[in-house]
Amino acid sequence: NKDKDKDRPRPHARVTAARRQSRTAVSLFPAARSPRCPLLGRAVPPADAFSVRRRCASRARSLARNHLRPWLFRVGEVVGELPERVQLRLQRTRWGSCSAQRTVSLNAALLLLPPELVRYLMVHELCHLRWLDHSRRYWRLVERFEPDFRALDRRLTEAWMELPLWLFPGRKSP
Prior knowledge:
The protein has about 170 residues and is of the alpha+beta class. The chain is built from five helices and seven strands; from the N terminus they run H-E-E-E-E-H-E-E-E-H-H-H.
């Protein structure tokens, strides 16, 4: 019976939504299954979809603090620029940013990307600590540490479409 089930087409996905505090959380889950957050490692009832998304997001930020922050400082030593402060968020429109106060903000969703893209983003933001613009001198500095930065930048732009829907509940599927 298990072999027959394996070859059987999967049922269509259904959309479940939970509304709480005027925010709608929408996630796609396979029909007849409870939503499962890979970061939590367990399934929960569909009625609890909003809190699953919140717990997954919280876990992503926690993992980012433990992994991305030290990684950023290791890359910073290579680049020769260290931030004064590091912020980790789940942002919908930016992978990272850098301020004039030498604060580097990273998107916790970077945890879900290939390491070469994460390293490129870190180099990109750390180079902004020296040149807070996208001038030629800035790109020459980036190129010193990431010679293939143009291709990596294109891949990073496209990576938004590969993120799971549970990470950003308001995002529409492509």
